Amino acid sequence: MGTAISVDVRDVGLSPADLDDVFAWFRRVDETFSTYKEHSQISMVGRGEITVADCDPDVGWVLERCEELRRDTGGYFDCWASGMLEPSGFVKGWSVEVASGMLVERGSTNHCINAGGDIRLRGEPEPGRSWHAGIAHPLERRALTVVVEGTDLAVATSGTAERGLHVIDPLTGRPAAALASVTVVGPELTVTDAYATAALAMGLDAPRWLMSLPDHDAYVIDAGGHVWWTTGFIRHAPALGCLPRPRLTHTS
User: Which candidate, 31, 13, 225, places its Cα nearest to that of 111?
Assistant: First the structure.
């Protein structure tokens, strides 16, 4: 998937085999969906060398969900936006959500999985303390812009900090450059990850759309360094409580 994945489990009783199963799942996802691998099924489908019917059933399911999200986001989440088949904006969050579910099935109620800034939090790292996830500042090297706290939460960030202008606005075909970073929090990572990607592609219209999403909140930094967040985001980042909430001025 072109990123590092860490799994932090704080429960006793899980065996090394349980974690081996989780990382075997990630390897399977990578072999099937990696656009970095010439012979992955998704790469071969994208080039028209095989059909979806020839693939693992997960491929068809993922592409169906991507199409649903394309409709739900007004076309801004589009796995063909770059001209190549690239469903990673869905696959990464989905694979982490599945991995978290695998750990729950094996008895883990306290863990954190982080796949390149897409994070699934469950339970507590220690009794009485919530997980803390630092969000990298897209414009200031080695700085954090906000810290998200939670005990059962999905956190997804799409931005320019690591990969530059890598998200394409499907409506124009050009790199989405108006926003530097979008962090979305929600109840599960599959959709939350896709929403963050769609919002980055939307540019300056994203805040108004983000406010309309039920059960999700967001934190946005535009290319000029201006910061904005939804009213409910402060529940997940209490440190923002001492700051005046910026006015919504960047939507058309």
Answer: 13
Q: At 154, is the secondary structure helix, strand, or coil?
A: strand
4 token code pair: 């590092």
Between CA 196 and CA 72 the distance in angstroms is: 13
Predicted TM-score of the model (pTM): 0.92
Helix 88-105 to helix 189-202 angle (10° resolution) is 160
Interacting residues of 55 by C-beta distance below 8 A, sequence separation 6+: 32, 41, 45
Strand bridging mode 152-159 / 179-186: antiparallel
Q: Which three-class secondary structure state does DSSP give residue 31? A: helix
Residues 184, 145: contact at Cβ < 8 Å? Answer: no
One pLDDT digit (tens) per residue for the chain, 252 residues: 778 999 999 998 899 999 999 999 999 999 999 999 999 999 999 999 999 999 999 999 999 999 999 999 999 999 999 999 999 999 999 999 999 999 999 999 999 999 988 999 999 999 999 999 999 999 998 899 999 999 999 999 998 877 778 899 999 999 999 999 999 999 999 999 999 999 999 999 999 999 999 999 999 999 999 999 999 999 999 988 776 666 544 443
Look up residue 65 and give its two tokens: 């969900």
What the chain holds in terms of domains, given with CATH numbers, is 5-242 (3.10.520.10)
CA–CA–CA angle 202, 169, 245 (5° rounding): 25
Compute the chain's Rg from CA coordinates.
18
DSSP designation for 128: T
User: What is the pairing mode between strands 168-169 and 217-222?
Assistant: unpaired
Taken as a whole, the chain contains a residue count of 252
**Among the listed residues 118, 162, 116, 154, the one whose alpha carbon sits nearest the alpha carbon of residue 137:** 162
